[in-house]
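Input chain follows. Return structure tokens only.
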Amino acid sequence: MGKILFIDVDGTLVDYENNLPNSAINAIQQVRKKGNKVYICTGRSKAEVYQNIWDIGLDGMIGGNGSYIEDNGQVILHRLITLEQCKHIVDYLHSKKIEFYLESNNGLFASEHFENAALNAIQEYSRRKGKANADSITVKQAFPDMIFGGNLYRDDLNKVSYLLNTYQDYTDTAKEFPDLQNGTWGGIGEKALFGDIGVKNITKAEAIDCLLKHLNASKENTIAFGDAKVDIPMLEYCSYGVAMGSGGDEIKAMADYVTTDVDKDGLYNAFKHLNLI
């Protein structure tokens, strides 16, 4: 078996406006033609993996930061938030007047006022990623298939993301849900823009280990590509870890190699550096 590549999506495969560089498409197609396997390993649920990403040619995906594993159309693992836990989350966030969206393989389901309430956070997130037109991006552009007005009591959830009005929203929510995995994204510590809630004790690294067992493959042949703190466990687990130049300081400090930015042919340049193409 050749190499097995695990590639984060946002900030690694695509930029934060969902632009997919042609160089990344070409690099992945070339590396697969040589007999290597390529999986995306993302916080996105399957509903957010749009057709242009599948059209590249992939061997499968790890989604929900590790709660979902698919290999060539076969579901290997899918750990879900229960209906009871979902009801608790929705009722709690409503009671605190915190807007949110539910992440499912069947779609992204926004709370009643999420589109308006999240605009500033989405634009700030884009600014932090260095995008020149960050002030004009809309929530619907950031989440093109988001469903508004859908059922919020669900039994198909991978995780939930919610808007942080203050960092105290995260600390309070984490105390309310000790039975679930609590985190933040969009910034470090007090600068975080969103909180998230997922299935307890899952990571991208744990999911990769599960997939490798299914493939009867060794982690000696694995390479991980990422840009954010949530990607650090998979870079630590895999035999070799690549951080994007547009990534955070923490992941760049621990990576084996730092490539160029996602929109400056980062994946292609990394593949060339590693003699994969």
